[in-house]
Amino acid sequence: MNKIMGIDYGDARTGVAISDLLCSIVGSTFVVPSRNTEKAIADIVKLAKENMVGEIVVGLPKNMDGTEGIRAELCREFADKLKEATGLPVTMWDERRTTVEAHNILSQHNYHGKKRKNTVDAVAASLILEGYLAYRKR
What we know:
Elements: E1 3-8, E2 13-19, E3 26-33, H1 37-50, E4 53-60, H2 70-86, E5 90-94, H3 98-108, H4 113-117, H5 120-137
Parallel strand pairs: 1-4, 4-5
Antiparallel strand pairs: 1-2, 2-3
Helix pairs in contact: 1-2, 3-5
């Protein structure tokens, strides 16, 4: 059985979360610098191989009314590049409010300043992956 990878794509940093072997919970998280898209893709491909990933879920930032804006278009382009680079199936997953929720979780656990900045993307990726894993269970 292969693991599932969740991605929270960002301009500066991209959060990555990887499930356990049973695809039931988040097993590990990473943050990949993403100002250079090609380098970010290469880093994610390496993580996918090292962690026996068989499927990727990329967060799709929709507006609260369900429409998609420029950010969603950028995420779709990134997902297409990931699919081409990895050869793995890539699913888009509605990520509305995951970053807000990630900030709330970090506030509750006293993460502030630089510590928060370096963690929020991984937490958001975990929330994307958790939502997708819960959906698959149903």
